[in-house]
Amino acid sequence: MTPDEIIDPLRPLLHVTGGLRTGALTEFDAGIAPLVRTHRLLSGTNPFDEILQHDLFDLCDHIDSLAGAMPEPSALATAPQIDRWCGAVVEDLPVLIGVVTSHPRLREGARTMTSPLVRIAPQEGWARTLSRYYRLGRPDQSCLAALLAEGRLRADAQPFNVPIVGGWT
Q1: Residue pair 138/168 in contact by the 8 Å Cβ criterion
Q2: Apex CA 60: angle with CA 56 and CA 66, to 5°?
Q3: How far apart are CA 138 and CA 158, in angstroms?
Q4: Does position 104 have pLDDT exceeding 90, yes or no?
Q5: Rounded to whole angstroms, how far apart are CA atoms 24 and 110?
């Protein structure tokens, strides 16, 4: 996946679900197998089992359900925050790159890459990845640039533009 292949930057995995459902994409396409493995890890199943067609449809259903859901206020209240964030395509998957606080597994202020980005609602201040919701702080591509300069991300990682009408005040 490249930034140009993202049909809808607010739902960047839309082309994946559409492609898998129509057969235009398969488990052999870049990014699909890691996406299935991540989905399996989150659901507690063996990520390295052979990928079958029902796994691909299950993944599509899961992504579509996450992309269509609105977060409960309580889920957002306890969600980690990501600041200095930007959308990026890393290893053929759309993600957020930024600095997180209140994350259950990462240290405060860690610069990180999220799990694959399913939906982002910058006007409402939240994003949904395959694993969790995030509250959005200020957008900024400096974290991506720093991680690239330090060699902590693949050199082919590329930013993609998330429309932010009106921005933050």
Answers
A1: yes
A2: 145
A3: 19
A4: no
A5: 37
pLDDT averaged over every residue in the chain? 90
Residue 28's identity, in one-letter code, is F
Whole-angstrom CA distances from 1 to 99, 110, 124, 130 are 24, 26, 27, 17
State the pLDDT at residue 166. Answer: 55
| C-alpha gyration radius of the chain | 15
Contact 40, 33 (CB under 8 A): no
The one-letter amino acid code at 147 reads L
Three-class SS state of 99: strand
DSSP H stretches of helix in the chain = 14-22, 32-43, 53-68, 73-77, 142-149
Q: Scan for tokens 């960047």, then name that residue.
A: 12
**If DSSP codes are grouped into helix, strand and coil, which group holds residue 103?**
coil
134 contacts 121 by C-beta, under 8 angstroms: no
β-pair partners for 124: none
Q: Are 134 and 125 in contact (CB under 8 A)?
A: no
Instruction: Quickly tell me which residue has 């209240």 as its tokens.
Output: 77
pLDDT greater than 70 at residue 55: yes
The conformation of residue 121, written as its DSSP 8-state character, comes to: E
DSSP 8-state class, residue 3: G
- The 8-class DSSP code of residue 92 comes to T
